[in-house]
Amino acid sequence: MGFHLTETHLECLEKEERQVVGGWIKVIARTRKQSKKHGFGALIQWRNMDGVLLQDIVFNRVLHGDQSRLIRDALIDSGYWLEPYPQSWSRLQRYLLQEILKAPAGICVDSTGWHDSVYVTQDWCVGTNSEPYYYSGQLNESMLKRTGTLAQWQSQVGALCVGNPLMIFVVGVALSAPLLHPAAVENGIFHLVGPSSTGKTSLLELAASVYSDRSFVRSWISTANGLAAVAAEQHDMMLGLDEIGLARPEDVDIATYHIVAGTSKLRATESGGLAKPSHWRTLALSTGEVWLSEVFESLGKRPKAGQQIRLVEIPVFGQFGAFDVLHRFQRPQLFVDHVKSQTSRYYGSLFPEWMNLLTSTYELAHYTKSEIQRLVDQWRTSSMSSQVIRVLQRFALVATALALASRNYLVPWDEEESIDSVKQVLGQWLAARGHVMNTEEHQVLARLKVLLPKWEKALSPMGQQNTASLLGYSRDVNGERQWLIDKSQFLRQLEMPGQYMREVMPLLQRGWLTTNEPERATLKLMVNGRSRRFFALLPDRIFAGIQELEIDD
For the DUF927 domain, which residue ranges apply (predicted)? Predict the structure, then answer.
């Protein structure tokens, strides 16, 4: 049996007779997974009854197997014409299998983002490799939509960002997401916090316009599993999330961790085996009227330091809500309405050009890492903790992306304004944070500042051996005051966990605590004939240190 493909349809040659099988359809490539050990199939193209050219990947295991009619049903549903004869599908099936052997090879992927040096989306791929890459599931609705040219986006949308640091910053967040992998920077979330009607959602739609239309923005009103699925779908892209205050606090708790961890929960298959987990890299941009601490307060707990580092909260700032320059508009609302109008008319043109630039940039990984380190070294101070520096790296990533885009004329503002805008946003984050210390350390020192005056009045002199003190004692050691605070009282009043060494370590490192039990950080003494454990504080050093560090209550 032979086949002949004309410009309009597929014919079958059997017994010297030509019979039409169906519409135009062709195998473009023989595909398989990157390992070349499984996932074999074919990229096929066809025209539907409206003349629209479609393509998708079909897998050999389905085309050969008992469920091959799923492929037939998908083709027919897409508008492909299959002749209404019993043998039509079997003939088309045979044609596709024969053509697979003749087709050039390619790599099939089921996630967007970086695959070696190639960047893959549902609609297009950029970058060079020995074989072409193809995305499976191309019949699904594309998340990347486009209207207008890059020049139109620059003049009608980008020009509005000039003079507005927050607008430039959110565009930088959108551009930064594909740089997470080459820069080796961990996932993160930037959360814009401010009252209603300050322009937060407009900022989010502006960032989305780099990629697509407003549908690119998702809502926090979803389960944690749902948000993880969205993050996996937008691998190596920005994830836009609107209104954290509308989400259930427990979902925010889980989602904040999952989005940044970059992996889904382990699940069992119907047969009891372990399902393959989803993975993603993303830089999320979130908005809301509430702070993360307020969300967790409703759960009766504090946000963990790791969550506060992952979800960086930035207060909305500007002379007019989120904006400093209204350009030709007289009132902020008119400017906001114009931003919304323009981002709904021009979108999706910057991202393809940006990825063309990234895939053609020589030694992209080395460049981004060195630029990030240069900016971190420029911005950091000697008092900054490791937690702050981790967040600083994320701000430096955004500045690096913006500077590269400015230098290559992809955005209508210069490199200096790109970096200065990020520095302004960074300054607002540091001001809202109130300190540059590790969160756990600051919490301990702030609590100590409150407790020290109370302890000073409550401690008994150590020399009065007949006086039993539940809290502890004071004494002089080598001419310096030392306070012995009962271990259980110390942990309870400072609200420390049972595993407390991480919280106590800063006190040891600063020389504010003495110990004869390094593994416990405690001082073990005989008091009134029995052994007791204390935390031995040097209060004069602590008073001076807290004053120097300007610790707020």
Answer: 16-277
Query: Which residue bears the tokens 């702030």?
Result: 446
For residue 335, is it within any domain? Answer: yes
Task: Tell me which amino acid residue 61 is.
Answer: R
Cα–Cα distance measured from residue 503 to residue 443, given in angstroms and rounded to the nearest whole number = 9
The answer to whether 134 and 29 are in contact (CB under 8 A) is: yes
For residue 471, the enclosing domain spans 439-549
DSSP state, 524?
E
Token duo for residue 371: 């630029």
Query: pLDDT tens digit string along 298-321?
Result: 887 776 767 777 889 999 999 999
Q: Are 349 and 152 in contact (CB under 8 A)?
A: yes
CA quadruple 152, 153, 157, 159: dihedral positive or negative? Answer: negative
Claim to verify: residue 63 and residue 117 sit in the same structural domain:
yes
| Number of domains composing the chain | 3
What's the count of helices (H) and strands (E) in the chain, helices before strands?
Answer: 20, 22
Alpha helices in 138-199 (DSSP H): 150-156, 165-176, 180-183
Position 55 pLDDT exceeds 50: yes
**Residue 153 · residue 346 · CB < 8 Å:** yes
The encoded tokens of residue 237 equal: 């892209």
CA distance readout (Å), 257 to 59, 81, 113, 311: 35, 48, 21, 9
In the predicted model, what is the mean pLDDT of the chain? 90
The DSSP secondary structure of 318-352, one letter per residue, reads STBTTBS--TT-SSHHHHHHHHHHHHHHSBSSHHH
Contact call for residues 402 and 170 (beta carbons, < 8 A): no
Here the tokens at position 485 are: 């605070």
| pTM assigned to the model | 0.84
Q: Does any domain span residue 41?
A: yes
Identify the DSSP state of 158: G
> Residue 162 class from Cβ within 10 Å (0-12 exposed, 13-18 middle, 19+ buried)?
middle
